Amino acid sequence: MKRTVLVLLMLLPLFTISAGGSRESDVSVITIWHSNSGRVGQAFDTLVDTFNDGIGKENGIRIEAIYQGAANDVLTKVKAAAQEDRSTLPDIAQMDATAALDMKSADYLITADETGADTSCIMPSALKALDSDRGLLAMPFNCSSLLFYYNKTLFDEKGLEAPRTLDEFASIAPELGEKDSSGNVVRYAFSGVPTTYELGTFIGAQNGLSYMIDAENGHFGVPEKVLFGEEGTFRNFLEHWKALYDTGYVSNITSGVRDEFAAGRTASMLASSSNLSTVIATVAGRFEVGTAFVPMVDEEATGGVNIGGGALFSFSSEPGVKTVLEFFTSPESQLYWAEATGYMAINTELYETDEYKQFLSENPQFEVAMEQTLSSNPEVVGIWLPSAYQIYYSFQSEIRAVTESGKSIDDAVSAMESIVQGAIDEYRNQNGL
Amino acid sequence: MIKKKAEPYLLILPALVLALAFYIVPFLRSVIFSFLRITQGGELIGIAGLDNYRSLFADRAFLSSIWHTLLFVLLFIPVNTFLTLSAAALTRRKRKHGAIFEFIFFSPLAVSLSAYAAIFSEMFRGRVSIINRIFSLDMLWLESPESAMVALVALSVFLDFGLDYILLLSAFRTVDRSMIEAAEIDGCGSLSTLFHIELPAIRNMLLVTIFLALKDAVLISAPVMLLTEGGPYRSTETIMYYYYLEAFRSSNLQKGRAISSLMVVLSALIVTLMGRRRNDE
């Protein structure tokens, strides 16, 4: 008797597993792997619930959202699933631009074009950001751009405006910074070390539009060649950046910049516009947070910023996918998403509505990010690179070497050129090109 | 008769099957693949010979990762051994409220790595970090290569502390009481008992903890991933973290396999060393 009970108990988990596997036959389930946590995660769950209780119910579709860690963790898992057993791939995965290169060459990707989802109301630069030789790779969803954050209270006290160019920034930096009696800097004008993300703007905006690598930053075809060296764009940036650093009021830190900003130890920083609500919450009213366009490298650097953030990549041709993608980019969803998270609303139908206008007037800092994007050249797009992570750190190391240890700009440019070229060559070799 | 002969093989069969499926076959596959050219999609496109290894050793970041791992081992092993051994030695006798200290010392075991990493990154983050407050310092721990390495060692010691402590404590407790009592009767003080009787008696367990620590140190990756992400400026990238970046972040499977093959050989060397040391006993 005892043994029978024991055996039954041991089998119980098996029954539960198999019961969990069976699905209601008339409802098609769309799984989404995502990377939204904290406040953004709650907002995402709300969107999913709204869908499941409304449109989903009417159409017999149910979203199952699974949090899979940070955006690059999602990518790692998607690639692992694709390699081992494709039936374990989700229907949709939310990933960022670092996934684009891998996804572009993935035969299991169903591009946003192929899903047939309607994109006529999506902001053009958000579409351009994901455009490739395979068409629109994924559905833009959580869009953001680089933004200049500053301590508005401090700037107002000093009678200063947010700098328009790096040279202007260098001229006001000594006024923004502060030293104690023994000469230690207690407040910097700027903290942070630019890396791939910031250079996407600092290099991309030069001469109205500059690519870092060929194939339009790797969007159309497989890149072959680094461009920022021979076109002189990286050198130009380094010259202006070094001038800013040489004022003595730039702090080369690579983490915790937001905390330094919130504690008033740096007058400004660069960060994604999607951090806006978190930054305001961290500052917690100690001073007024101002946002402005990213300073231009020089007067000719008029290209503006590129759209970053994340998109919904699909791996299934089930008709439900189209419905889900259209739901996430609908005016209602995008308005809620922008309000709850600080990401940009990318549905252009919204822009004329009163609700949206009211939202902007209540959140002027948010409006700046939108204006900056709308006034940017949509052709300025993020870079799709192999070994993105390694290159990210290399940029920081080279910029630090130039500013702190007196490495010559020429050496830094050629070092960076050979690192990126090496990554491209290895990628091509690895793929038999 | 045949049954008798087959019995031992039958007994090791389950372990053998598991080892074959999860260690040996994947390892051999990895070694073979490390000499081939394979696309990100897993398609075989040719033979690479030693190219994968050559490109690995041509990468300065890989060479630095070897140096960082070595530095970590050199810092971690002595600090970890000293601290766990001291804690175990101090609490080796059963005393009235000794359980409180024992509990404190092995409580690190009860919390997961990622939770500790999150706590440590808060403790070391920014100028207003908890560590700075406690020691009234003004430094950015995770911003300079040296102090970031110190933070990493601190986290790793904390992670290994609980287990090593339990192993050493239980070894201390199993030392033959009669020897200790005899020494005490002969007028041996507490310190001399520790150094001349108890430490030699637990030498084997001490070696086990050192080898365990060595294994953890050589293969360290998760604490790096969670605390420093290899930064600042790639200064805390260890071999296994570099492997993770190449194989998983960049999908460079060829390079990844070359590294994993090298690391298995290295680990095998360490294990052999450990086995030899034990055989000498």
Q: Mean pLDDT of chain A, nearest integer?
A: 90
Could you please say which CATH topology of chain B applies here?
Answer: MetI-like fold
Q: What is the rounded distance between the termini of chain B?
A: 36 Å
By DSSP, the count of extended strands of chain A is: 13
Integer tally of domains of chain A: 2
Shape of chain A: globular
State the largest interface: A-B, 31 and 29 residues
CATH superfamily of the largest domain in chain A: Periplasmic binding protein-like II
Polypeptide structure, described:
The complex is a heterodimer of chains A (433) and B (281). Chain A is an alpha/beta fold. Chain A folds into two domains: 28-144 and 308-374, D-Maltodextrin-Binding Protein, domain 2; 145-306 and 379-430, D-Maltodextrin-Binding Protein, domain 2 (3-Layer(aba) Sandwich). Helices cover 47% and strands 14% of the residues of chain A. In chain A, strand 7 (178-179) and strand 8 (185-187) form a beta hairpin. Chain A starts with a helix and ends with a helix. In chain B, strand 1 (36-38) and strand 2 form a beta hairpin. Chain B has a single domain (54-280), classed as MetI-like fold (Orthogonal Bundle). In chain B, strands 1-2 form a two-stranded antiparallel sheet. The relative contact order of chain B is 0.13. The two termini of chain B are 36 Å apart. In chain B, helix 8 packs antiparallel against helix 9 (190-201) and helix 10 (203-218) runs antiparallel to helix 13. Chain B has 281 residues and is mostly helical. Chain B has helices spanning 2-33, 51-58, 60-90, 98-106, 113-124, 130-134, 145-173, 177-185, 190-201, 203-218, 222-228, 239-249, 253-280, and strands spanning 36-38, 44-47. Helices cover 74% and strands 2% of the residues of chain B. Classes of the chains: A alpha/beta (433), B mainly alpha (281). The A-B interface holds A 72, 76, 79, 83, 102, 105-107, 253-256, 259-260, 263, 265, 386-390, 393-394, 396-397, 400, 426, 429-432 and B 37-42, 45-46, 55, 61, 125-128, 140, 142-143, 230-234, 245, 248-252, 254.
